[in-house]
Fold:
Amino acid sequence: MDRAKELELKKIATEIRKSIIIQTAEAGSGHPGGSLSGVEILTYLYFVEMNIDPRNPKDPDRDRFVLSKGHASPLLYAVLAEKGFISKEELKGFRQIYSNLQGHPDMKKVPGVEMSTGSLGQGLSVANGMALAGKLDGKNYRVYVLLGDGEIQEGQIWEAAMTAAHYKLDNLTAFLDHNGLQIDGKITEVMSPEPVDEKFRAFGWHVITIDGHDFNQIEKAVSEAKTVKGKPTIIIAETVKGKGVSFMENEAGWHGTAPNKEQAQKALEELQKQLESLEVQG
Amino acid sequence: MAKIATREAYSQALAEFGELYKNIVVLDADLSKSTRTEIFKKKFPDRFFNIGIAEQDLMATAAGLATCGKIPFASTFAIFAAGRAYDQVRNSIGYPHLNVKIGASHAGVSIGEDGASHQMLEDIALMRVIPGMVVLSPSDAASTYECVRLAIEHEGPVYIRLGRLGVEEIYRKGELKLELGKGIVLQKGTDVGILATGLMVHEAIKAAKMLQEKGISVYLVDMPCIKPIDAELVLEVAKTAGCIVTAEEHNVLGGFGSAVSEVLVQNYPVPVRMVGVNDEFGRSGKPEDVLKYYKLTAEEIVNKAKEVMKLKK
Structure:
């Protein structure tokens, strides 16, 4: 990836981080931690990789993205707004009674949302269904899904992992947002799913591990996944929960707690500084 | 006349409609010999997916297929479809109102020897409270065929309740035309109304004959569509007969009788007696013995009819 492109993506990512803070602060609820950790992944998918068109959100040939960890909705909404599926004005209504932006994404209410999610563990199965349909119809679209590392404690994930391998869904790429934290603490202390790479490999997947905040590594992994034939790929993205906001980083407490006014102010100032330093570089 | 189970009729119908509707796909969870979906599998191997013993994955995979324009028929036993995979049916099918059809076989106690763990007696209750879910419960082969047709023609989630036991023909295929939200009047009468669904329609027909031999005039209705319920017909029966007996192979709590009562109590209250399983789990036994044990019989419908007629104002 050339430097200018990377810089541009970094700026978009920082804007999305600001939006996550603003949405959750305005709503007084929501999930900032796990939204901030997946920013680079979604930024890359939506602004580089995926064949999607906000003017034609139901194009049958489009690539699909399923946010299996549906609580990271502020991240998805921020990306959809930045991409033009919804207006930025709408983001102010996040989690409010008259808004379409539900606490967890609702595909019937928001264009660009491919699946209603929120009940953990179901998104990978849904993505499998989309990938199976693509194979049946001889279509070239690809299906992406973002899983949480706490989420894979759900047994259904492993049912779906079997199905994806059994049906050789090489048009499916899963990302694991491996930030190591869930509501009650470290995933390894609550209920360890480790070693996740070996588990997925044993289930018949092609496994790639990357730094989930590095656009170059994301790009390389996504390209590699497209060359893999006969099996699905999982990209284990090592990430930091709360990434980009110093006092939120690696704190399980920021899983489902919104920042108050002062905290939001502080976070936004930090992010603004990051943006300005990117401007200087660019 | 050969008896045909509704599960068998369901899979035959799928194989037949599969010719016409190329976007029908069938999914099963390692029960294709029991649900009989192997009939479809043999004919359309490319459009059949065995998901293995994984009902949660089965339901959500069907949801994903539906988002891409397929009409998935997710087929397994009712206990697993409505029970084990309830959250997937609610959140990944019902809530996004996806075009998934759930073929739930082996419902009720009449599966017999397998016993309580496999005898689903709560599925009508569970499915009808999911907003937008259509709940169908056919009584014979022809009505099953029609229910499959209605499911295909309806855009949205549909639950079809099917039985394992062979049942006699009530209707001739080709002569029956079902409408969504409509019951089937088998005969009109003025003394008591009997509304039945699924397997219990057969007992209701016998009960009506027994009552008529005693000079009692019965308004007899088969209700293959539990949701949306034919409120108009329920009220017509209430107004004409003045009292109602409901019959279902299901827990009386939250089931078909409850659905009928909800309509009555809000519009035209008349006395009701319910024939069904009285808040119990099932037990092992020969299907006929289990049905008798739980009083899912024509005799019990007759008893309840006599009781309820005494309560008429």
Notes: The first strand of chain B starts at residue 4 and ends at 5. The two ends of chain B are 43 Å apart (CA to CA). Chain B touches chain A through 29 residues (CB under 8 Å). DSSP finds twelve helices and 14 strands in chain B.
